[in-house]
Specification:
This protein is mostly helical. The protein has 48 helices and seven strands. The strands form two sheets. The protein has a five-stranded parallel β-sheet, with helices on both faces. Strands 6-7 form a two-stranded antiparallel sheet. Strand 6 and strand 7 form a beta hairpin.
């Protein structure tokens, strides 16, 4: 896949203590119904399953709200679906003193069905413990009898099939039940009864204490926080809240990756609409809802004034800031209350990020200003110092605004456009002149967009739509239009308002026509798009605006590459010349990306690699997140075609993670994730991601990404051996590319795969037509680099009638090297398949071993596994057909049915079927029709 243009866990909290250690926490509350399916916990859940299978027990531990209960819910649902009984107990703090309560939860409903199987004295002891029977007056229940009765009950259950025992929140487990369960767990080691136990610990690294409730061989697994990506997915799936950029980072940081806290903070954002306020003022504390605030407010209220003031300074400081004794000494009281802890380096740190947010939210404006004033005096870094000065200032200050602007320039040289955006926003606030303030705010918006902070960019842009200067209003509306995306219904109104404000100014008029061109090209209306571009170029020439001309060339050139590669490359080179020596812009980056793509499509892989690797280094150093997402996307494509699959996998995963954070829709990110899996992951995982990408792209009406998703899904289907699915997706990919007028066969290598899938599916006419069309387009555009793939597909077509001739022809066409090494590996794989069908096993093995070596050198894991399976199948074949099998072959060629063959050879029908199965494997065919074409 190479781009044609720039595509413009959780679970409920069963008890809300745990954020602060110690007995003084608030009382617990019982959780409600289980949340929907887990988010971002697939790997952990797989570890739990494998641990249960291997050891019979797992102890999950971590802080409150981290998602332990949700993991048990998932295990319970799986067991229910498999028809396995589930015994579960979920005690609370209020029930910790009620004896045998957990046993009542576990066995109360099960005991009546098993009672008659237990000896009478054990049955009576257990019935008394479970309150199913009143004890005899004056007779005490024998504790040992209860323990043995529970053990025997569980053993009898296990005799009927696997049993899953789930013990949640065992820190509240009553002592009597704990002793009984530990007694039984030590003796239940046959794996038919599995124990999954959860225990609340202060943090994931704290040592658990409830291992005795599991079998002796059990393992403990910490349940850690979600990553930022997982937090975003949780909020999207649970609340429909799509956070991105700085707002998501804030929610993730404050929640500490705790799913419960993140959901509570997300609900607060949606309830009071403070998401937009956060974007406008990133330093603004989150509105911590009462249910979370109650966890810490009581302890904060107990602190002396000096300690609370010191906590405000600590909360406002950047991590690692050296604090004086006047701040650290009053924090001793906070340490005693578990609010602050010491890091290994001896510096104070909040025991949970949520506490810092409550401290900031509760601090008075004067206290916050004092804290920032102190921090400004403590730091020697000019950028950090002036940021604190801005937060400490009470009134607009032109001199402070000038220092903030200079600090923003410094931040940009450090590759931190996000920091520059924040500083420029402060500078605008402290600038009395409305025009200068507006230009600083526009610069803040543009830097925020470049840093992948669309919420901050949008907030700044919306303030500028009422700016006094017309050019500021036009640029703000164009920025907002781009942030909305090409399909958003509100974009047209913004564009119309921007056009009305241009006043005939050539540069502004050119910018409006440029945006209209982008939208037309996205719709697939190339004629209108090129017309808008021509109009924009005339106005840009008249305005003598090189940067705008570079932007227009960056739009036109990739499309021109599709029909006239030489002219498209010339346009890109002109754009790079115009941009040389000027500050880097997104358009200049696009021109350089385009040159890498043009080189790749022509087969000049070394130049493509050099261009994209140089560009990636520069963009990463500049901290331009949005540009980096595109560069990583192209880098992954270039690395894949260059046969460097391990690096392509890493770049693709990085592109997936970035786009998932900054894209308004998830389709592109999941396409890139699927492509990465086809390089260094698994075909199964690729198929899952790409199915999701297809749904997202269909919902978003994004035909380009939809085409790529279908094409990659077709490749995954080929790897998985599902030809009908492969034909469906590859056909959809080709049709969508044609609709987009992407006729260059090197844009996406779909033609050879489609022709191969059609041939192997018994559709020779369709395969031949696909090949003829692809060869014609490759010839017209000079794309000789795709011919090897077409040779490979044609060999599969020829093999339908003559596999030996197909193999001989393909072998003669194989080059010693190829610009796309994986295409050469694929051709050797095809040769091995053809040689096997031609019954030349030594030649088949040699070709497959060659393919294996090439895929191994590239690090292309899915295709490497595919070749290993083919080699194993080849090694398992019998040397030659037996005399009986040779007779069966002869009768098949006459059209005889299995029953007729059985009658002729005096065999059973099952014997005929078994021999046919072996012949199918031996010849590498899928059915009788293909087998009948082989000659003796």
């Amino acid at each position: 896949m190479t781009p044609s243009r720039n595509p413009v866990e959780g679970g409920t909290l069963t008890a809300m203590t745990g954020i602060l250690p110690g007995p003084a926490g608030p009382a617990s509350s019982t959780a409600g119904p289980a949340e929907p399916a887990l988010v971002d916990r697939a790997h952990l859940l797989a570890d739990i399953r494998s641990t249960l299978a291997a050891t019979g027990g797992v102890l999950l531990h971590g802080p409150a709200g981290i998602g332990k209960t949700a993991l048990l819910d998932a295990l319970a649902q799986e067991a229910d679906a498999a028809g396995e009984p589930v015994l579960r107990s979920s005690p609370t703090a209020a029930e910790a003193d009620l004896p045998h309560l957990a046993l009542i939860d576990l066995l109360g409903e099960t005991l009546p069905a098993l009672a008659e199987e237990l000896p009478s004295h054990l049955r009576q002891a257990l019935e008394c413990a479970l309150l199913h029977r009143a004890p005899q007056p004056g007779a005490a229940t024998d504790p040992l009898a209860v323990r043995v009765a529970v053990l025997e009950t569980l053993r009898r259950l296990a005799q009927r099939g696997p049993v899953l025992v789930l013990l949640d929140d065992t820190q509240w487990l009553d002592a009597a039940s704990r002793q009984v369960i530990a007694f039984a767990a030590r003796r239940l080691t046959d794996r038919r009864i599995r124990f999954a136990v959860t225990e609340r610990t202060e943090h994931a690294d704290a040592a658990p204490t409830m291992a005795a409730l599991c079998p002796p061989t059990a393992r403990d697994l910490p349940v850690g926080p979600l990553g930022e990506r997982g937090t975003g997915a949780l909020l999207r799936e649970r609340l429909g809240l799509r956070l991105s950029g700085l707002t998501l980072s804030r929610v993730h940081a404050v929640s500490g990756g705790n799913p419960y806290y993140a959901l509570e903070l997300g609900r607060s954002l949606t309830a009071d609409g403070s998401e937009s306020a956060l974007a406008t003022d990133p330093a603004r504390p989150l509105d911590v809802p009462d249910r979370l605030r109650a966890l810490v407010s009581a302890r904060l209220a107990e602190l002396p004034d000096a300690a609370r003031a010191a906590l405000t300074v600590l909360a406002a400081a950047r991590t690692g800031t050296g604090l004086p004794d006047t701040v650290t000494e009053p924090l001793a009281a906070a340490r005693r209350h578990g609010i602050v802890r010491q890091t290994p380096t001896g510096t104070p740190q909040f025991s949970h990020p949520l506490i810092a947010e409550v401290v900031l939210a509760d601090a008075t404006p004067a206290a916050l200003r004092d804290a920032h004033r102190l921090l400004a005096a403590l730091t020697a870094d000019a950028v950090e110092q002036v940021r604190h000065q801005a937060l400490a200032a009470e009134h607009p200050d032109p001199q402070l605004a000038a220092r903030l602007t200079r600090a923003a320039d410094t931040a940009l040289t450090r590759g931190a456009p996000g920091t520059a955006a924040e500083l420029l926003r402060h500078a605008a606030h402290h600038t009395p002149d409305p025009d200068t303030a507006g230009r600083r705010l526009l610069a803040a918006a543009r830097n925020a967009a470049a840093a992948g902070l669309p919420d901050l960019a949008r907030a700044c842009g919306e303030r500028l739509t009422i700016a006094p200067a017309a050019d500021l209003r036009v640029h703000a509306r164009l920025l907002l239009t781009r942030l909305l995306g090409p399909d958003h219904p509100g974009a047209e109104a913004l564009l119309a308002a921007a056009a009305d404000d241009t006043g005939g100014h050539p540069a502004l008029t050119a910018a409006v026509h440029q945006e209209r061109a982008v939208r037309a090209l996205h719709r697939g209306d190339r004629a209108e798009g090129f017309a808008e571009l021509e109009t924009a170029e005339k106005h840009a020439d008249h305005a003598d605006n090189p940067d705008l001309l570079v932007e227009l060339l960056a739009l036109r050139a990739p499309i021109t590459l599709l029909t006239d590669p030489a002219h498209g490359r010339a346009l890109l080179e002109r754009g790079c010349r115009l941009a040389a020596g000027r500050p880097p812009t997104a358009a200049a980056v696009l021109c350089r990306e385009g040159l890498a793509v043009a080189a790749l499509r022509s087969g000049d892989t070394p130049r493509a690699l050099a261009e994209v690797e140089s560009l990636r280094t520069e963009i990463e150093a500049a901290g331009r997140t949005e540009d980096l997402a595109n560069v990583l996307y192209i880098a992954a494509s270039v690395l894949e075609r260059a046969g460097r699959s391990t690096e392509a996998y890493a770049a693709g995963r990085a592109a997936h993670d970035l786009r998932e954070r900054i894209e308004p829709t998830p389709g592109p990110a999941r396409v890139l994730g699927g492509a990465a899996e086809l390089n260094g992951g698994t075909a199964e995982r690729a198929a899952q991601l790409l199915d999701s990408a297809i749904r997202a792209a269909e919902d978003g009406h994004d035909n380009e990404w939809l085409a790529y998703a279908h094409g990659l899904r077709g490749r995954a289907a080929l790897l998985l051996g599902n030809l009908p699915t492969a034909v469906h997706h590859l056909t959809r990919c080709q049709l969508l590319l044609r609709h987009l007028q992407f006729n260059d066969p090197s844009v996406f290598l779909v033609d050879a795969d489609l022709a191969e899938a059609l041939a192997l599916s018994g559709r020779p006419d369709d395969a031949a037509a696909t090949l003829a069309d692809a060869r014609d387009r490759a010839g017209r555009l000079g794309r000789d680099v795709v011919l090897l793939g077409l040779h490979r597909a044609e060999a599969h077509l020829t093999a339908l009638t003559d596999p030996r001739r197909a193999a001989d022809t393909l072998r003669a066409l194989l080059p010693a090297a190829h610009p796309y090494p994986l295409e050469l590996a694929r051709a050797h794989l095809a040769l091995g398949t053809l040689e096997r069908r031609a019954r030349r096993r030594a030649a088949a093995r040699a070709a497959l071993q060659d393919a294996h070596a090439r895929y191994a050198a590239a690090g292309c894991l899915p295709w490497l596994r595919h070749v290993e399976t083919a080699l194993a199948s080849l090694d398992a074949l019998e040397a030659d057909p037996t005399p009986t099998q040779q007779q069966i072959l002869g009768l098949i060629r006459t059209g005889a049915t299995n029953r007729e063959i059985a009658a002729t050879l005096h065999l059973s029908v099952k014997a005929v079927e078994a021999n046919l199965t072996r012949l199918f494997r031996q010849y590498g065919v899928r059915g009788r029709a293909e087998l009948a074409k082989y000659q003796e």
